[in-house]
Structure formats: C-alpha cells, structure tokens
Amino acid sequence: VRLYRADAATPDAGRVAGLVSAQEHIVQFVPACPLEPNVEYVLELPAGGIHDVSGNALGTRIVHRFRTTP
C-alpha cells in the first residue's frame, strides 16, 4: 500500500510516509503527517501486495486518485 503526490516525478519521489494496518476486510493507511491542502494524491494497492484472511493475494492493482480540499 502506498500513497504519493500525483504531481511528483515518480511515485517514490512523492511518497507519503505512514503506517498501514489491516483487520479482516479493512486496510487502513494513516499518514505520518497531515496531507497538504489542494493537492492530488494517488493511493495504490499493488497486485499481490495484500492478502485476504484465506491467504489469497490481491489479483490486480487498484489505484484511487483524490484531491484534498483547499
């Protein structure tokens, strides 16, 4: 699981530090510091990066883009 600024040159360059936790059907990402206002971010769950309670890996990459409020 990774969160990064959409306007960064690479995902690693715009990466937001934080903690990831999971419980049953919920994956939670908590950024280490507040997100910047009026910035577009990308939340990415890589294929194979997380597993369900039966051990099945996520089959396809999931990407969600959002913008924080000004």
What does this protein structure show overall?
The chain is an all-beta fold. It is built from no helices and five strands. A three-stranded antiparallel beta sheet has the order 1-4-5, with no helix packed on it.
Relevant terms:
70 residues; globular; two-stranded antiparallel sheet; three-stranded antiparallel β-sheet
The pLDDT mean sits at 93
The counted number of beta strands is 5
Determine Rg (CA atoms, Å).
13 Å
- How much strand? 35-45%
* Distance linking N and C termini: 25 Å
> Which strand order does the major sheet show?
1-4-5
Main beta sheet: strand number and arrangement? 3 strands, antiparallel
Number of alpha- plus pi-helical segments? 0
What is the string of SSEs from the N terminus onward?
EEEEE
Shape: globular
Residue stretches low in confidence (pLDDT < 50, at least 5 long) are none
Class inferred from helices and paired strands: mainly beta
Summarize the amount of helix as a percent range: under 10%
Task: Annotate the secondary structure layout.
Layout: E1 2-5, E2 18-23, E3 26-31, E4 40-45, E5 62-67
Antiparallel strand pairs: 1-4, 2-3, 4-5
